[in-house]
Fold this protein.
Amino acid sequence: MITASALGSFALIVGLLTLIPGLDTALILRTAALGHRRRAWGVVLGIQTGTLVWGVLSSLGITAVLTASHLAYAILRWAGAAYLVWMGSGILASTLRRRARADPAQADAAHEPDTDGSFGSGWRRGTLTNLLNPKVGAFYMAVLPQFIPAGAPHLTTGTLLACVHILLASLWSGVLIAFARVLRGSLRRPSARRILDRISGTVIAGFGVHLALGD
């Protein structure tokens, strides 16, 4: 079985990784700040679903394909990059089409794909965003095996470690959602909403470009 020391070390690594602002942070903050609380939690659980899948695949050694096959990694990388650029561009385009006096909720439904405020739509977005990021798979492939003791059942131990990551990330996501809801009143102003959309759209699309151009 995994030792308490190894479990603590893994928790420290993924905990620090969780605190670093990135794509997940941008998605969760924007969704929650717009008042879509159910959708925001859908995004959170979708991201963590992807984390669990990567953890299981890494435990089974399947993600080794990403490190062994340049073609497999490149295909997933380009698919993920295209998805992020499409998502970010859609958010940016909505700010150009939205009328200054339009109701924000109506503007969302009219101009942004898959933005209906439901838990399911958020879950799909979070899951796709995570699973189409080969760097998450590469991270798990590089880190997870180091914390699985010799002779321990790989699937059980790897899944346990992934669940530790999921727990920490979910707790931090709860903090982000609570913080975003504090800002919700300010974001009712059309000008503030456009600024939020331009920043988040640029960040998300930028992650896609970075993923496409990265090694």
About this structure: DSSP finds ten helices and no strands in the chain. The CA atoms of residues 127 and 187 lie 26 Å apart. The chain has a mean pLDDT of 81. The two ends are 36 Å apart (CA to CA).
